[in-house]
Amino acid sequence: MTENRLTHKNSDSPIEGARGLPPEAASRAVEEYLLDIDDEEFQLQRRGYAAAVTNPQFVQAIQAGAHGAIVLCFLEWAGPDQRAVVAKWMRIHDGEGAAEFAKILLDAPRSFAGLTAIGASIDFAIAQFEAGGIAAKRRIIDVSGDGSDNSGQPVTVARDKAVAKGITINGLAIINEKPGREPRTVFYEHTHPPGGLPNYYRENVIGGPGAFVLQIVNFDTFAEAMTNKLLTEVSQHKIQAP
Q: What is the pTM assigned to this prediction?
């Protein structure tokens, strides 16, 4: 049973900022929280994402892009009917903007704890792109979590819908070895699907041009992993920019 978070990333969005130029990317990420994830683990993920967004290397990578800006949005979700916008679309082109976005994440309370409807969360992310008028050349949904889909429509259906719209979905698989989880129990099967969680993400969650999965072995390294993930995405965009 899970609570999750979402953000996304786009490029060449029609949302304009400084110098009258479109941002380099507009982003939304998806992070998953099991119901039995304690407050400390939850805060490690929240602080980890805030640290990644404000990391000087990430800000420098944004500024080095063709337009020197990205647009971010942050969502949280759990079951099919548990979805919330934590941080609305925000244009980021410097450390001040990144810090403002991070503060919203750190100040907001935990939204949900429930099942893991990854498919419904991807649909929700797609809707945010459309509602926000994000008509980017390249759009990315980041999915981060420690378990498999267990509620709502099949995640593969939502993934295929996103890919058909030209959206790339990337993944960050968290290997949760919390004590007390025994093989052949519900929680263990959820966090350790056949073939392993990274492979589950590769086969069921990610999709689109350049899609990838990163793996972390505990919550303490979440900030570093998310920073690497965002840097990889910005770098990929820079390579593809005309």
A: 0.84
